[in-house]
Every structure is written in structure tokens, then in C-alpha cells.
Amino acid sequence: xxxRESPLxxxxxxxxxxxxxxxxELHVDRRSVxxxxxxxxxxxxxxxxxLARALRISAKExxxxxxxxxxxxxxxxxxxxxxxxxxxxxxxxxxSVDHVDELVAHLREQWHVLVRAxxxxxxxxxxxxxxxxxxxIEELLxxxxxxxxxxxxxxxAAYAESAAWxxxxxxxxxxxxxxxxxxxxxSHEADDRNMVAWTLFRxxxxxxAGRDAQGTLGLAAAAGRETVGTGTPMYAAILQxxxxxxxxxxxxxxMNRMLDAAQKCAASxxxxxxxxxxxxxxxxxxxxxxxxQYFVVLGNPARAIDLFESALPALPPVYRRxxxxxxxxxxxxxxxxxxxxxxxxxxxxxLAIARSVxxxxxxxxxxxxxxxLRRHKRIPDxxxxxxxxxxxx
Length: 393
Description:
The chain is mainly α and 393 residues long. Helix content is 72%, strand content 0%. It has helices at 7-14, 19-26, 30-38, 48-55, 59-78, 84-88, 100-121, 123-140, 146-169, 173-189, 193-209, 213-226, 233-248, 252-263, 284-297, 301-311, 320-336, 340-357, 360-372, 380-390. The longest helix has 24 residues, at 146-169. It is globular and about 75 Å long. It starts with 6 loop residues before the first helix and ends with a helix. The model is unreliable at 82-95 (pLDDT under 50).
């Protein structure tokens, strides 16, 4: 006789979700869902709000369902009632202070792995891992002190900033801002000036996304004052953001000067795992792609197209999402040049990458591109773009 389904499985099915669709909504692997439903593993507490929302229940009801699933699993293993300690184990601390140093080393290494996963696969795969590791860190923080706590808080800030970026790329700016605030708080607690600088840099990016030239320049300058050292990839990224502010202000000369200065301290790595620290993505090809983007902002799309076409082949393969962003911005340059067929062709390339990595931000850019090309719908390439946009991701 087939074994009855677990309480969590029944609830998931009642919402109309398959394991695959449920995993996609939570940004986790389907195997994780299977392990939760079978009672072989429990989700970390940081996943509770997302699980509760997906299952359309309260957090209190979710905890009850998880307890019921654990009871169901233990009965299947033993044929009897489970030990009370088994059911309550989900709420025990992750570890004790005697091995925090080993856990910090492990979590630091995992951060590099997740950065690379983000560059290759985007937020669809990386976000769940970042949230899981943040759950571990948040369980360890109350049981650590002194130097060990300081190192853990630094790591918490790095993971929180990663969560902020992944939420932003997923099109959830509100959550992104919240995680940046937490990253900034932890950075100050740890007295980590470079991390404080990086959170200010991220704030400047939010300002530039809103086309606020002076806000961009002010926050980027503040980041530059905080950062330790001026010959690092982090400093190159800050200079690049200052260039963005000058482009928004219409100053081509200062924009070019900032980018030229950034090239002198650009990152040299091609692995995509941030071994050179924050700003490791700021390689020479990346900076030239940014120069191309800013020439679009300045109203010089012809110059932008030349720069895009020369820089794109040099972009390291691991930066797949950045390639999708560049295709989207190149498409915008072709729109400005009244090249609808080429704009549509590059828009399709951008959309394919955006959907494969879960970059809602880039997919939204391509959707807006479609609106700009609507009057050219009879052109085959443009129609093909509209066909792609009409198919759900």
C-alpha cells in the first residue's frame, strides 16, 4: 500500500503548485522541496516568511505544518511516536562557540561559490543559497562574542548585500533596500570601512537607476571617502558610478575621466567569484561596456554601438547576466539610431539570457523596448521579439 502524503505535500498541492513551480517561486532547487516534504530536512527559519506566503497561511500555521510533517516522517521511520526532541530540533541553535571559526571559514568560501553562481545562473539559483547561509549566520550571532563575533558580523554584511543585489535583479526593489539597510548596520557594527563604502556605492546605484545625477554623485563620493585604498577593484567600481552620475548630468568630459581612472585599478580576475573582493566584476571590458551605456545616456548612440561591439567579445564568459544587460543596452542604442531590426535582434538575445537566469530587471527593460518598437511590428525581427515577449517566462 502506498504511503500517505505528508502534511506539507498536501498543503502544497492544495495551492495548485507542483514541486517544480513551488521551487521556482521560492528560488530553491526542487530537491529541497522534496526533502522538506519527506521530512529528511527542514527549511531554515529565514525561509518561513516565503514558505508561508507561497502556501497562503500564517507563520504560526506553517510551524504547525512543519511539526506535523516531522511527526509523520518519524512515524514512518520508527513505526511509533516520535521523540519530542526530534520535533523541537528545528529551533535549536546551529552550533556552539567552539567551532565558529570553522563555520566562518566555510561560510566565507560559500559566499565566493554563490557569487559565481549568480554570475553564471542569476538570482533564480543564487538567492536561495544566500538566504540559507544568512539563516545560519543569524542563528550563530547570539552565541558568539569578541573577535569571532566581529568576523561573523562582517560576513553577515557581505551576505546581506548579496541578498540585496539578488532581490534587485529579481525585480523586488523594496526587499533590496531592506537588505542594504541591514548590510549597512552590520558594516558599522563590525567597523568594516570597505563594507560601509560598498553599501554607499549600492545606494548610489539606486540613485542612478532613478536618474538622480546629484544623488548618484554624492553617494558615490561618500563611498570613495570611506573605502580603504584607491588602487582596488572596489575603487574602480566607485569611480565607474561617479562616471554614471556625470553622464546623467550631461558632462561627457568628466564621465570619460572617471572611467579612464577606473581602468587603472580595474579587476583582473575572470573567474567571477569575487576573489579580489567587492568590485571584482569591474574588469576592463565591463568598464568599456559601461562607457558605451553612458554614451546612450549622453545621446550619442553611434559611439555607444561601436563601444558595445568592441567590448562584448572581451567580456569573460562567466559574466553571463552582464552580457544580457549589455545586449539590452545595445538594443536601446539601435532604437535611438532608428535600426528597429537590429534593436529587436539584440533585444531577443537579452530576453533569452534574462529568462534563463531569472533577471526580471533585464526582462523588464526588454519589455519596454517592445513598446518602443510597436510601430515597426511588420518587420520580421520585430515580430519575432513580440512573439518571444508573448510567451510566459
